[in-house]
Amino acid sequence: MVTVTPLKIEDYGLIGDGRSCALVGRNGSIDWLCWPRFDSPACFAALLGDGENGHWQLAPDEERGGTPITVTRSYRNHGMVLETVFETHTGVVAILDFMAIGAAEPTLIRIVEGRRGAVPILNWLVMRFDYGLSVPWVTRLPDNMGISAIAGPSRCVLRCPVALHGEDRHTVSRFIVSEGDQVPFVLTYMDSHGALSQPIDALAALHRTEQFWSDWIGRCTYQGEHAAMVRRSLLTLKALIYQPTGGIVAAPTTSLPEELGGGRNWDYRYCWLRDASLTLIAIMAGGYFEEAMAWRDWLQAAVAGSPDQVQIMYGIAGERLLNEWEAGWLPGYEASKPVRVGNAAAGQLQLDVYGEAIAALHVARQTRLCAITDGWRLQVGLLQHLATIWKEPDEGMWEVRGGRRQFTVSKISCWLAFDRAIRDVEKYGLEAPLEEWKALRQDIHDTVCREGFNADKNCFVQYFGGTGLDAGLLLIPVVGFLPADDPRVSGTIAAIERELLDEHGFVRRYLPDRVIEGVTGDEGAFIACSFWLVNAYVAQGRMEEAHALFNRLLALCSDLGLLAEEYDATTGRQVGNFPQAFSHLSLINSASILNAGRITTMGAAPLPVL
């Protein structure tokens, strides 16, 4: 019997194929996999429970003398094929894990390679569909070269050259791998009502997948300092793109906690408009204009329709109904409950998304990702609606659940929407009520400076009339709302340094407040916000401090170069959903800014000169 306890979040590696992702632990266990899409129910959900909720262990057999002495892992050829090397007393083996590129059906392949000596291997497969709830009916394949597991509409087929047998609703094999051996395991997802697909040549799929990732990262044009970390972040973002639509999920996981053992657990397998302009800029900073164009097209299609129905997030194909419910049978990662599926924040009013969307489309127009007039009527409709609602309270960019307030960053984003649209009208002669928009822009600016600034503290505050801070205020000089040398901006950055930095100098989003947030508990430092402080330092000309903070942030990356949403300074661990697109986008942008030595304000996010 194999007992599986989820590892530290940073001890997982990511593999993907443009449709979904899997998380592979350094112990050789795959503890998270949603099939056939990022947002599909998980068939391996041990990450949020234990081994009985579904996992796939493939590693040296410790019961037969295969206890690892050392474990090292890396991505082969700097791509997305994960190689985990186990050194034991009897020899060395490597496990190659990847999701096959170009396969007709979603396929996960694991190859055991003997490197030295002879090592006993344990294969322990526990299929559990519907987030660990449904136990499938398992039968042998007609050729006796594997098994088929069916539950409801889902079917997974495992093919391998070693004998398999059942042990208490688990599929098991034990064998010896000697130097030079290559033993492939191929797991394929298909509809339960369909015919069996043809077997896949695992070694040919390995070559094809490695070539794909090698070719893709070989097109990267970024040549600045920290290029290796930038490339790894770009690869991570590419793995989070749903290839059929171009949508990018915020993370491939749900309910990894912001506080270990707490209830701040959310489903991030969706696409946030908050990330829109940041995504475009980061992808283009690497030279990937095709992916940027696909994201821009996804964005425009997602927000199309009635302007008053714009959401803060959508499904990977633009779905709007993201109903939130709880998987009560799962105990949660390190007892962090509840486990949530779906995200109720999709129904919130967040005014900042208008700024993000308009700024992203502005960036696309500036960089010629689209025709000058493409989508302009849609943008005019969005701005006409924004003109009628910008004074309303909202839930803010951090999606609080304690009620609406007049969040300062939300109002700045409204200013941003009109500012970028005005720039496009003036530069390209687009048809619009220019003078009306200019008056609105000035009205919003005056309102923020009057209501969002606390003279006693000499800083902008989280919401009108409040006294708390918000890390989103670090974007003020970046988007061009006020210059970095304005005393109000300097005072705000200084206040954030005093009140929101943890003991390691990383930035918290804000100080937790149950009344504002509507949830209890604490959280770690928000990694993206810490990168925003790097950018603010650059804007102020504090280059030495900017480089020092950036290097401290790089030190938070796992050995595979991956980042979660937050960092818990108390435990020294990554927390939150993993890997987090927002963290990697911010890493790329801050690296580009440091490399350029300055910031321009094209869009809602930092942009080096293109």
Automatic annotation (TrEMBL):
<feature type="domain" description="Trehalase-like N-terminal">
    <location>
        <begin position="7"/>
        <end position="139"/>
    </location>
</feature>
<dbReference type="InterPro" id="IPR008928">
    <property type="entry name" value="6-hairpin_glycosidase_sf"/>
</dbReference>
<protein>
    <submittedName>
        <fullName>Glycoside hydrolase family 15 protein</fullName>
    </submittedName>
</protein>
<keyword id="KW-0378">Hydrolase</keyword>
<dbReference type="GO" id="GO:0005975">
    <property type="term" value="P:carbohydrate metabolic process"/>
</dbReference>
<dbReference type="GO" id="GO:0004553">
    <property type="term" value="F:hydrolase activity, hydrolyzing O-glycosyl compounds"/>
</dbReference>
<dbReference type="Pfam" id="PF19291">
    <property type="entry name" value="TREH_N"/>
</dbReference>
<dbReference type="Pfam" id="PF00723">
    <property type="entry name" value="Glyco_hydro_15"/>
</dbReference>
<feature type="domain" description="GH15-like">
    <location>
        <begin position="226"/>
        <end position="590"/>
    </location>
</feature>
<dbReference type="InterPro" id="IPR012341">
    <property type="entry name" value="6hp_glycosidase-like_sf"/>
</dbReference>
<dbReference type="InterPro" id="IPR045582">
    <property type="entry name" value="Trehalase-like_N"/>
</dbReference>
<dbReference type="InterPro" id="IPR011613">
    <property type="entry name" value="GH15-like"/>
</dbReference>
